[in-house]
Structures are given as structure tokens and as C-alpha cells.
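Session log. Operator J.P. requested a structure for one protein chain; no other inputs attached. Running the standard single-chain path with C-alpha cell output.
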Amino acid sequence: MAFLLSLKRFTQLNSSLFHHMKKIAPTKPEIALLQPFVGLTLERIHVPTSKEEFASATAEIKAAGIVGFDTESKPTFVVGDISEGPHVVQFALHDKAYLFQLHRADGLPFLLELLQSEQLIKVGFGLKSDRGHILAKLGVHFNAVVDLNTVFSMDGYHKEMGVRAAVALIFKQRFAKARHVTTSNWSQLQLTPQQMLYAANDAWAALKVLEALNLPREGLPIMGMGQCSELNT
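Structure written below.
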């Protein structure tokens, strides 16, 4: 009898494990067949340049409570070189995005406030690595962070999802990423329109994915909240 119960339990566990493991993200060939994802247009993307503009942007970002987030860095092409990024930090709201360029000194105090805030939840893909880069460059802890890769992992997706696969899975749409923009110079004084669209929509798509998942705020795996932060211990 005990053996039969053990066998039944083993079968149940195997069935549960199989169900858990069969969640697979869309592949590149599958994504290529989808209709394009429609993101923010240039009119909805703002790059503050003055203290007043940074103050206004910060107030609006804080009022949102939860934002899409991402960073961009000038790429390195030589083995052993260390990136000096991030050079651009993106905050996406429901219908717009703000791009903070780190070479603009007037914006730095506002950026540090947003990064450290535990009241403002920042949502994106691969943000665990961003926390280390931000600490190294700016000397502050990146708080209240939700890495959507962790959210999908908790739901049974074992490989890192990434924004393209998540958009394909959730919206059945293709999120385009042009390599020549990805590897462009993000430290330059003025961002090109292509860079602005790329950076803003990376963050905005993350926010849209989270909204579509419709998860309760208390159930989100938030990093960097008081004593829960790995970097604050």
C-alpha cells in the first residue's frame, strides 16, 4: 500500500514537473512571423536638458508609482575593456517616456533620487545586472526593482525571457531591435531619433508587459526594499 502511494505521488510530481517545464518562450523564427509591435512615437519621448525640465520629469515619474525602466551604455568592442555605462537611463510611463542622459549634470540629483526611491517601482528585463552597473558608476543602490525575467521564471519559463520574447508571448507581436542602434554610441551629446525610439520603447514595452500580466503589486518580486535588498545588506 505504501509503495502504491509512493508511486502515485511520484507520478503526480512527474506530471507537475512536466507541466512546469513545458513552458517555452517563442523562438526567433516564430517571432519573425508576427505583426510589428507599435511603440511610442517621437512626440511621446522627452529628453530633459535643463534643471526645470528634470524637476518636472521627476515629479511626473514619481507620481506614476510604477514605471518601465532600462539603461543604455556605449558598447565596448575590445576584449578586456570595461563599459563606463550606463550613459542613458529610461523611465517609461503609461503614454510617454523620459530619457535621462548622464552627461547632463543638472539631471544627476534627480536621477539619483529616482534610482534610490523605494516608493517608485522600476520594471524591466535583465535589471539584476543594471543594479551592479549603477552602484559601480553612481555609488547608489538601485531600489524597488522588478526584473520581469524573474517574473516569467516563477511562472515556469526557465530561460531568460527578454523583451522580444515577452512581447511575442503576451501581445503576439514582434518587437524589433536593430543591431546598428543597439551598438551605437550612447554617450554622445545628442541622441539620434533612432536611439530615442529604441531606448524609450525598451522601457515602455516592459511596462506594457507588466500591465498585461495584471499581477497584484504585493505579489511582485521586488528587489532593493529595505533589508530585502542584496546590495543593502
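Operator note: The chain is about 45% helix and 15% strand.
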